[in-house]
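Question (not urgent): is this output format expected?
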Amino acid sequence: MPLEIKTEDIKPKILVIGASPRVEGNSDVLIRHFCAGANRAGGETEVIQLRDCQMSPCIGCELCRKTGQCSRFDDDMVAIYKKIIESRGMFLISPVHNYNITAWMKAFIDRLYCFYNFAVPRPNHWDSKLENQGRKAVVAAVCEQLDKKDMGFALEAMQMPLDALGYEVIANFPVLGVFDKGKAAERPGIVKAAESYGETLARAIH
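Got this back:
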């Protein structure tokens, strides 16, 4: 059955996607503070940790072009699709692995391919099933180094796909100079920024 999106089903809710393999690491700290800020502003949040999900990477089979949904795999991503459809907001956060997002986040983003519509013959016009619905997002990346260039492509690797899918990415949040587990909690500026971005996104989707 094709993915069905009804405007009345879209809620002012933020789906939070964490892509760190490290439990209680810096990404988890920032997720908690982001959600606290969003909740304080009256927003509803739901957190999905990709490390806890059984999810196959996209293999480019193109079946979704024919069926309107990912028809190759029956895994945890199937339930996540429904949560994406029903949430007007999204927060993506990933540690930086080798100048890019983690493999978990890359797999998640690639599995969003089924939300695209492609005209034939290809290459030709394409659009997204999620566009023009007031969807908004914030993306964040956590890096050990102090210079933003050492994040490489991490922020862009999350923002550009969301842009293409029809989200307005209202902020990207680079977190620099933290590595040891949970040390972000000891950085008041970073904690405050995470809460502020949560508040901002919650207000933007209401």
